[in-house]
Design a protein that fits this description.
single chain; mainly beta; Seminal Fluid Protein  PDC-109 (Domain B); four-stranded mixed β-sheet; four-stranded antiparallel β-sheet; about 10% helix
Length: about 500
């Protein structure tokens, strides 16, 4: 049997069976009832053993070497000639070369080049030898060659075969292989260099790999944390295992399928498995709720961090949720946009309810700002007669007659040098609150004359040249036409 051959079973054609070379290991695996998924085999006692035992009709295939090259006239095969009618199974030329090699080896005569490589002759010499031109063969008339001698003169010294034999060719030049190390693409995707002469460390395609300072890392996957549509039916909660459901008509949410179901029979849910599997096993326990969910994507998200308090928020087109836990909590609904911006701001205590605040606005400008004090959210309705915020801080209002008079009309917020700055929705006006304030009357910064291309303000930021708050910080205003207005002071 060939040393590199495999044994294939007809029932498993994708992977060969595993060879167990050691009989002790074979017996150990049988005693422990271990087995490779594709099957195992070994040879001992003159027999091949296969485990698991193949079923009826199953076959095992493998290649092997036959030591009997002689076809016996009497039938069968053997390793030597025993009768005149016996024939050689391989091409006759290999037999002749083998006899020649054995004769010279017995005489102690050095083998001529090529006779020591009978294996190479097998593939190229099957059947009759075909004539072909030989540029190394000497001319037929050696006497006509300059400085040559005739065959008749040298017949006593060499045979005609030796005189006209094929001349050996130069030895084939061996391949020179060299190992090349390709550095990791730490520069990331490079698209501004010639692809044929790209510098090391760049990549053209980098799917699911992220560059680092020392190499690359595999992009992390994801898991579902919570389903924001679980709250689409008021009072609905996600179904859970091993839970008593004895309130008929109560609505439960299938988080895997995004569907709602009403309790029809008092029961305790299965200890394991999915809601769908439990309904299939007990179809009378539930009735379908007609609520149809229209899946909405998460448009924006932001976080709040203060000491050991960490919260995460996510927004759809019309709703803002607290998604700190796997059960979402609705913060605001009926909003005009899901693209929110938020700024966290700390100041001296303006009330007993908090000193670390966060203000959030969405890009529509049609909704009131929201404010968070680390515990609860309030809506900053600045209209006359609206109740005061319950967090103890003032409302956000603007000058009379302006779009921000009652707190609406703000589309972006950020912090710069102890003040909160806002962008007036759809305008070139920026607004800011008094220093160290999370509420109060807004003051206006008209920037229409500073931008040469017009448009509207869409974002702002505090730009630090020394990676921290300092005297070199800049206040940056960005327009829809790509202009950046920078203020310092």
């Amino acid at each position: 049997m060939l040393t590199n051959s495999h044994v294939w079973r007809s029932t498993s054609t994708l992977q060969p069976m595993r060879f167990i070379p050691n009989t002790d290991e074979w017996l150990q695996r049988r005693s422990a009832n271990w087995s490779d998924a594709w099957g195992e085999w070994t040879i001992f006692g003159g027999q091949m053993h296969i485990w698991p035992i193949m079923g009826a009709g199953a076959t095992a295939r493998f290649s092997y070497l036959d030591k009997n090259p002689i076809a016996l006239a009497s039938s069968g095969f053997g390793d030597r000639f025993v009768a005149d009618g016996d024939s050689y199974r391989l091409p006759e030329r290999i037999l002749k070369l083998g006899m020649l090699w054995q004769w010279k080896a017995n005489k102690g005569v050095a083998l001529r080049r090529g006779h020591g490589h009978l294996g190479r002759c097998h593939g190229r010499c099957d059947g009759d030898r075909q004539p072909r031109p030989d540029p190394h063969r000497p001319p037929a008339d050696l006497g006509a060659r300059p400085h040559g001698v005739s065959v008749a003169w040298c017949r006593a010294a060499m045979s005609a075969h030796a005189a006209f034999r094929r001349q050996p060719v130069d030895q084939q030049v061996a391949q020179h292989l060299r190992t090349i190390t390709i550095p990791a693409p730490t520069r990331g995707i490079i698209q501004n260099e010639n692809e044929a002469y790209m510098q090391p460390g760049g990549a053209l395609v980098q799917d699911n790999w992220a560059p680092t300072m020392r190499g690359v890392k595999l992009r992390g996957g994801y898991v579902r944390w919570c389903d924001l549509h679980a709250l689409d039916v008021p009072g609905a909660v996600a179904w859970a295992n091993n839970t008593l459901y004895n309130t008929l008509g109560a609505v439960k949410f299938d988080a895997d399928q995004g569907t709602f179901w009403n309790v029809a029979v008092s029961h305790t849910s299965a200890a394991s498995g999915t809601f769908a599997a439990d309904r299939a096993a007990h179809p009378t326990f539930w009735t379908a709720n007609p609520t149809v969910i229209t899946r909405l994507p998460v448009i924006s998200s932001f976080e709040y961090v203060s000491g050991n308090t960490q919260r995460m928020y996510a927004a759809q087109a019309t709703k803002l949720f607290d998604v700190t836990s796997s059960t979402p909590v609705l913060i605001a609904s009926g909003q005009s946009s899901g693209n929110w911006s938020a700024a966290q701001f700390s100041n001296a205590a303006v009330s007993a309810l908090g000193t670390n605040w966060m203000i959030a606005v969405n890009e529509s400008g049609a909704d009131y700002p929201l404010r968070f004090n680390g515990t609860s959210w309030v809506t900053l309705d600045g209209t006359a007669g609206a109740p005061a915020p319950t967090d103890g801080a003032a409302k956000i209002t603007g000058p009379a007659g302006t779009p921000v008079e009652f707190g609406k009309g703000l589309s972006y917020v950020w912090k710069y040098r102890g003040r909160l700055y806002f962008i007036g929705a759809g305008s070139m006006d920026a607004w800011y609150l008094p220093i160290d304030s999370v509420g109060g009357v807004l003051a206006k910064i008209p920037l229409a004359g500073a931008a040469t291309l017009g448009g509207k303000l869409i974002a702002g930021a505090s730009w630090s040249l020394d990676a921290g708050d300092g005297i070199d910080d800049k206040n940056v205003f960005i327009t829809s036409e790509g202009e950046v207005l920078i203020f310092t002071g």
